[in-house]
Sequence to fold (512 residues):
Amino acid sequence: MLIKIFGAAVQGIDAILVTVEIAVDRGISYTIVGLPDTAVKESHERVMTALQNSGFDVPRRRVVINMSPADVKKEGAAYDLPIAVGMLAATEKITEGATDRFVIMGELSLDGSVLPIRGALPMAIMARELGMKGIIVPKANVTEAAVVNNLDVFGVNSLAEVADFLNGKITIEPTRINTREEFARAENAFDFDFSEVKGQENVKRAFEVACAGGHNILLVGPPGSGKSMMAKRLPSILPPLTLAEALETTKIHSVAGRLRQGSMLMTQRPFRAPHHTISPVALVGGGANPMPGEISLAHNGVLFLDEFPEFPRSVLEVLRQPLEDRHITVSRAKYTIDYPASVMVVASMNPCPCGYHNHPTKECTCSPFQVQRYLSKISGPLLDRIDLQVEILPVAFDEISSRTAGESSAAIRQRVVAARNIQLQRFADEKSVYCNAQMNSRLLNRYALPDRYGLARLRDAIERLNMSARAYDRILRVARTIADLDQSENILQHHIAEAISYRNLDRSNWIE
Fold:
């Protein structure tokens, strides 16, 4: 008897339909075809033992399993459940036609229980797009898949429960989630708040500007000055995720298996802080079984690179293309996959090897050559993609001991959202441009030209401070954002002056 069960395979951050065909005939053998990996081939022992321990007779017959399309590699143990259900249907233990129009995925334990899988969300999205009746997934993945509206999502705990449900012996209510209500309830809940930060008003302002325009930012300061502490609070002032952004971000984390059990739609922008020993593949994605890297896991959020010069040069250089294109293409001999990578990079570093260059009270033990060599670990092309370079100094004791709370993240976020709304209206007719940081030269000439006083101030700064030519466009982008925060249509002289103050590393006298 021939039975067809519908499953799914994840490619990139999307899923495609996989038809699992099970034929049971005379003889004794077990064959799987359709480009299965080792985990799928090993399903024989798991499926047979799970069937036996769930109270079903193991078919002592010839079993042929074909997974279509045959040119797509089938990976992982998530095909255990559709194979087991197909064998039960082929041996008439499940009513004929009961599995029609269901997508079924899950890993089986030897006792017949159903274990969590990766990629339940893109599988559910695929099932809805294809007009399937519903999707059956492990109970641990049901809330993740149920964020997809207009689809019946059934969570199961065991193989026996699936068989009873398909035979009509028990009723399983589909899981329903009010996505918008859950999203609105949790979008403003943050563990960290800028009101807890004492002093550092200039750095807070730089963060506000960076978030308002989507600019990358580099913090340069001695140990203990608060670089990491403030970076962790950045998601609290970024604009809230839209539902579309939340869905796309959740898909990436679902495919990577990074969602906690019982989690639903991600409501806060991700904050990823990889250690400087990370490999290039771990940062951008790929591998034998392709997975999103840290830069894609930070999509629509923050990628924090602490101890920036300590990252290997090979790792930092792979950032250049995704920071420009806002997606990463992973090409290997057998596959090519696109992962989204629209991130805000926040980097921090010491100003020199000893950490105390330009410190107000501690003496630096490094020579100018050592300082220059330390800074040169970051290449010019990569530094060119960082709009704000801010020097941060230690907080004075009087500010540390002050009991007065600083400005809250909610107040800062309100200004950031207002500035972003201006940019969304400005770039409404531009494809793939949502914020000032994405402006090219054509858009700069249209929207970011200062008045003659501002232009004179910019010319004077570049000539007097010996700034590099690449600083010109960056200053104009940042000045446009500062003007948006002021609700100003024109870029004025003081907007240019503030933008110039955020280009510390472009000054030739910084290391003297």
Notes: The mean pLDDT is 88.
